[in-house]
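=== RUN LOG ===
request id: a7f3
mode: sequence -> structure
chains: 1
length: 89
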Amino acid sequence: MISSTQQIATDIAWLQDNCEMTNRQCDDVINACEDLGGISAEYFCEEFVFICEDEDGNEDLDALNRVHDDDYLSLDWFNTVFQKEDYID
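=== RESULT ===
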């Protein structure tokens, strides 16, 4: 198991090398990761952070709305499909 100090150093190095983040940006990501239970910055960024680009490689904010769906796996949907009483022995 990696110590929290080692994890922070690893996270900072990864964020600076792979995401070209400033120290302040690294702090923001690391704080978010700690709030989420101490996950690694690499995992957080690989799973939850992305930039939509058009065919020319420019940032495409309109595309974000096409790939982000607020209702995808919403709690309301989940609770409707998986009723609590269906899973009580």
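=== NOTES ===
The helical segments are 4-19, 23-35, 41-48, 61-67, 75-81.
DSSP finds five helices and no strands in the chain.
=== END ===
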